[in-house]
Amino acid sequence: MQDDNFLRLPEEGCIFLPASLELADSPKAVLRSHTVPLLPELILGCGDCRICFGDFTGEAGDAVRIVDCGHAYHESCLLRWFAERTSCPSCCTHMGKLFGAQPSEGTMRWRCTAEPLEGELQASGTIVMHWEFPAGLDRQGRRFAPRSQEGYLPDTGRGREVLNLFVTAFRRKLLFDVGASISNGKYWPRIAVHIKTSRVGGAQRYGYPDSEYLARVVQELAERGVRVRLPQVLTESTESPGCSEQSGSLRNQDVKSWRRSRAKAAELSVPDQVLGTLPALPSELELSGHARRWGSHLQKQTERPSDEQKNITINPF
């Protein structure tokens, strides 16, 4: 198997819900991860805070910009807003974690086997996943039937990347929902993200070979807020001997560090569609004044996988 420190899940494991359900981000955590301070030089062009309709004059320390969309608010106003909903008041761009309607009780297991999937010549084997949901009640109190489902991924670096994303989606209740099956009419947990449920048969029969499957499912998960996490960027001091900071001008090391993160993403086969969902390089004034704050934002994205393993139990399949 390929050695890739970025993909940290064990080759064989099991997670249980509700014990491993992720918790929603706190308003302060969303604010910290999705905003940067607004410098005094940029305040005049930002108009008023769209929450309280007050201006930013004399309150530079309380002005922040949402990195996802660029809108500016008072930090205190935005913190109160995030206590009710984690989206931009102006454009409704969502921040923080999304959660779905998957049953809260269930099990996900996976293991690696030597048998390859059809058409996956570069794979060293197959990642076999198995989900179990007992019968229960949906959010409206309607009873749903139990379900047992198996799925398959190629045992490659990219396949294990998708396994990581599947685990995160399962813990956020996004991998399945509850509804009537189109094929058999059962009211039970339905697959909400495309999962290969057959080893053979091609794309039309939910099997392999399907050369575009991994790229498609990564994009599909990204649209639900489950994204590939990039390595650390801009976390080292950007000061160097003889290099003075000039207002309104990006320092070379800032730009080089940001470009290195994109190059690393390419090495990890992160598709262009997913790169488009990642935060863009901040404006020149913001990055030159707040490079460390921006770096901390991206660093948190790379540290979360280790946090998510706290509730993962390694267990024979």
TrEMBL record:
Biased composition (Basic and acidic residues): 300-310
Coiled-coil intervals, chain numbering: none
GO molecular function, one term: ubiquitin protein ligase activity
Pathway: Protein modification; protein ubiquitination
Amino acid composition bias (Polar residues), ranges on this chain: 236-252
Enzyme nomenclature, EC number: 2.3.2.27
InterPro entries noted in UniProt: Deltex_C, Deltex_C_sf, Deltex_fam, Znf_RING, Znf_RING-CH, Znf_RING/FYVE/PHD
Segments for region (Disordered): 236-256, 293-317
SUPFAM superfamilies tied to this protein: RING/U-box
Regions that span the bilayer: none
Reactions it catalyzes: S-ubiquitinyl-[E2 ubiquitin-conjugating enzyme]-L-cysteine + [acceptor protein]-L-lysine = [E2 ubiquitin-conjugating enzyme]-L-cysteine + N(6)-ubiquitinyl-[acceptor protein]-L-lysine
Domain RING-type: 49-91
Family (UniProt): Belongs to the Deltex family.
Name listed for the protein in its UniProt record: RING-type E3 ubiquitin transferase
Species the sequence originates in: Polarella glacialis
